[in-house]
Amino acid sequence: MGHNTAMDFTPLIELTRANTLECVHFGAVAVVNTRGQVLAHAGNPHWLTFTRSTLKALQALPFMQAEGPSHFGFSQEQVALMCASHNGENQHVIQAQGMLAKAGLNVRALRCGCHVPGLFTLLDKAPPPGLVYDERHNNCSGKHAGFLAYCVQHGLSLEDYTDPAHPLQQAVRRDVARAVGMKAGDLVMGIDGCSAPNYAMPLSKLAYGYARLASGLQDTEFGASFAVLSEAMTRHPELVSGTGRNDLAFMKIGRGDWVTKIGADGVQVVGSKSRGQAFALKIIDANKPALFAATVEVLEQLGWLDDEQRVALEPWRARRIINAKGLLVGERKPAFKLQSFR
Question: What residue ranges define each of the domains in the chain, with the CATH number in brackets?
Answer without folding.
Answer: 6-340 (3.40.710)
